[in-house]
Every structure is written in C-alpha cells, then in structure tokens.
Design goal:
By secondary structure, this protein is an alpha/beta fold. It has one domain: UDP-N-acetylmuramoyl-L-alanine:D-glutamate ligase (3-Layer(aba) Sandwich), CATH 3.40.1190. It contains eleven helices and nine strands.
C-alpha cells in the first residue's frame, strides 16, 4: 500500500472546519461512555446528540451531519435503533462510523450485528486490531475490549476489509493505521493512559464521526485528521501529573485547545506518516 502523508496544515484545516460548522453527531453508543463521548465532542467543537431510541433514530439520522454506531452495550433497543439509524443514514447520504466494540467469539450477538452493519455502507470502521480482524474474517477477537493482535499484523486484513466494504478502516494501537485499501496513514501519537480511562477509544470513534460529518468528501483524510488531533491532544495531556484520574480532565482541555501550532510541533517531532 502507498503511504499517505497527512500534514499539520491538513489536520488544522479540517479541525477548523469542525469548529466552524459544529457538525451534529448522532451517537447510538454504549451507555458506559455516553458522558465521556458527549464531552469529547463538545471539546473538539462538534454538537453531540445521544439519539438511540428506535422509531426516533432513523428520522434523526436523516438530519444529522454524521452518525456513530458503537456496539459496546448492544441491548435489543440499541440494536434496533442502530439498524434503523444506519438504514436512514445510508438512504440520506449521512456519513456514519461503525465501532465494533468487543466483537469476537465471546460475544456473538454484537459480533453478528457488527458483521451485518459493515455491509451497509459505513464511511469509516474504527476499532482495535482484534475487532478489525474479526470483521475482516481474520481472527476470533480479543478479551472483551482488549486487543490481542498488533496493528501491523492485521493491516493486510484491514485493507481487504476496506476494499470489500468501501469504508475507510482505522485500526487503533500504539501507532494507529488508517487505510482505504490502497493507501495507509500511520499516526504515531497518543498515550497508554487512553487505555486507562473509560471511553478512550469510544470517544475517538465519535470524533472521527465529527470530522467525517465536516468533510464527507474525503473520509480517509477526515479519519486520519481526527485520529491525529485526538491522539496529539492525549499526548499533551499525558505530560502532566501521572495517573488516569488527572489525565481525563486535562485531556478534555487539550481537545479544546488543540490547534495548528500544537499540531505542527507534535508532527514535526514524531511525524504523522511512516
């Protein structure tokens, strides 16, 4: 695959578009992370809406800028709302993001739903390496939300998943990889503290949806820019006192403060594409 270089100016341009347009992001997401997800979207400049009731979710998806479907708590009500919202989003041309949380053999209900939804035109599929491997048919899943595979190990399967579904596939890990099946961007930012707080990955899915709503014409650039802005903010937040308790509020502050100059400093230091 060809390496895609994502520059600080590109990320800053899309970040400013998010803040200028405040995309309305509908979230059918798990109940554990709704507050975290809402706060992350507000901090980055988007407008969150937790509309996950069947018979409401479809109509809202038609009006929203983008949709996140996160399968962390796949209750019967949320499963129905997810299907309804996805079908309406696809019909209306609303870009949507699939986050197949904990997909794998241990959790067959959500896994079957994730496999079904992946065929319904997501703009982006975002997950850890084990979750992406399951959707690609290249693994049986990790232990709950924990990945047991490496990003590079599953990248060929992620590329094939992207080609098969037409979605951009974003694989989270120590170095994130985002691919459309032909090109790949690698984002070497972030901090292990994101795995020590509730919703570190789930909120990223929502931020990806915000960028996809602001830039639906280029989901690969949107997803790469979202991951870069999010992980660079996390990296800066981790520079303070150690520990997940103090990290979380600092992270929200950094999401709100991230801008072109901060992006440029981080990218110049570590880069954005391998």
């Amino acid at each position: 695959m060809r390496q895609l270089s994502v520059h600080a100016d590109d990320v800053d341009r899309l970040l400013e578009r998010v803040r200028r347009t405040a995309p309305l992001v509908q979230c059918v997401t798990n109940t554990v992370v709704q507050n975290v997800t809402t706060n992350a979207l507000l901090a980055i400049g988007a407008s969150p809406a937790m509309v996950d009731v069947a018979e409401e979710s479809g109509g809202f998806a038609r009006a929203a800028s983008s949709l996140l479907v996160n399968l962390g708590t796949a209750t019967p009500e949320q499963r129905a709302a997810a299907r309804e919202a996805v079908d309406a989003a696809r019909d209306a041309g609303t870009p949507w993001v699939l986050d197949p949380v904990a997909a794998g053999a241990l959790l067959p209900v959500r896994t079957a739903l994730a496999l079904d939804l992946a065929t319904r035109g997501p703009a982006v599929i975002r997950g850890n390496a084990s979750e992406i491997a399951v959707l690609a048919g290249a693994g049986s899943g990790g232990r709950g939300t924990d990945a047991d595979r490496g990003v590079d190990e599953v990248l060929p399967a992620a590329a094939e998943l992207a080609r098969r579904t037409g979605a951009v596939v974003a694989v989270s890990g120590p170095v994130d990889a985002i691919t459309d099946g032909e090109r790949v961007a690698r984002i070497p930012h972030g901090t292990p503290l994101l795995t020590r707080i509730t919703g570190g990955g789930c909120a990223l899915g929502a931020v990806v949806a915000a960028f996809a709503g602001a830039a639906p014409e280029d989901p690969l650039l949107a997803a790469s820019s979202a991951v870069a802005a999010y992980t660079i903010a996390a990296e800066r937040a981790a520079e303070g006192p150690a520990g997940p308790g103090s990290f979380q509020p600092r992270f929200l502050d950094e999401l709100a403060a991230v801008d072109g100059s901060r992006l440029a400093v981080a990218i110049a230091r570590e880069g954005v594409a391998a």
